[in-house]
Amino acid sequence: MAASLVKRLLCVEDKVFLVTGGAAGVGAGIVRGLLNENARHVAFLDVADREGSALEAELITKFGALRAKFIKCDISDEAQLTAAYKQVLDKYRRLDAVINNAAVLSIDDRNVKRMVDINFTATVTSTMKALDIMGANKGGNGGTIINMSSLLALNLGSHLPVYAATKTAVLQFSIAMGAEKLYSESKVRVITVCLGPTDTAILHRSNLQNFDKDSAEPIASRVSVRQRVGSAVSGILEVIDQGKSGSTWIVKDDQKAYEITDKLSQAFEVLSDI
Which of 79, 156, 75 is CA-nearest to residue 115? Predict the structure, then answer.
């Protein structure tokens, strides 16, 4: 058996996953991909009730009852997020991995707070809840947290400044939470994926849940879509297989995932000498 397959079996098969922003786009692709890799159960959170319920019905038909569970949840509301985590534990009695994928995008000032609340604050809150449940130092069995950042977190410029800032914050937070000392205590890997532009509704006018319809068309015209959802999902599954805690990976341009942890460390060393 190939080493990569062994790792995937260890990291996905028979495990219970929670995915935020899982009703459509990359999130829905991740949910499908995990079940195809024989995850025991996948719970996914989203505000999109119709899309989430339809996906749950599709997955139950394909994979059987209890394998997939949609939970309507606005993750920016901590009470709702806490209730969703409780629902997963009540239903499945355990949690092995969390993928913090949910994000919203806008180019104007009207949705700034919501971008910060969902893209960063909710990622922090979800990460801390996952660590409380899965952390070996909290009575758990260890696990994995994947936090989704963006290529924009690695580039200086004025393009989508608030969105880029939230994703930069996710990157910094996840690197810190994945540090060796914390991992040695919790046995929970915290890994960052910087995702390149992907052909999902977040870039198109139809995605009215995520941003104001007047700003959607300029976003779609300004962002070059270079990656299929399937490619993004394959890359994220590779990271689940291969990633060490504290590592950072890029998934872009329909390529295999590749690690940039050492390059980031070198860059931070340069900055710290200033």
Answer: 75
Secondary structure of 80-148 as H, E, C letters: HHHHHHHHHHHHHCCCCEEEECCCCCCCCCCCHHHHHHHHHHHHHHHHHHHHHHHCHHHCCCCEEEEEE
Determine the distance from the C-alpha atom of residue 232 to the mean position of all C-alpha atoms in its chain, rounded to a whole number: 11
Tell me the whole-structure pTM to 2 decimals. 0.89
Residue 143 lies in a domain: yes
Task: Convert the pLDDT of each residue in 202-224 to its tens digit.
Answer: 544 333 344 344 444 444 445 55
pLDDT tens-place string over residues 116-154: 999 999 999 999 999 999 999 999 999 999 999 999 999
- Please write the tens of the pLDDT for every residue from 26-77: 999 999 999 999 999 999 999 999 999 999 999 999 999 999 999 999 999 9
Is 7 within a domain?
no
Number of domain units in the chain? 1
**Domain containing 244: what range?**
16-273
Q: What is the CATH number of the domain that holds 81?
A: 3.40.50.720
Question: Residue 32: inside a domain, yes or no?
Answer: yes
Which one is catalytic: 85, 163, 183, 258?
163
Note whether residue 170 is domain-resident: yes
| Residue 85 falls in the annotated catalytic set | no
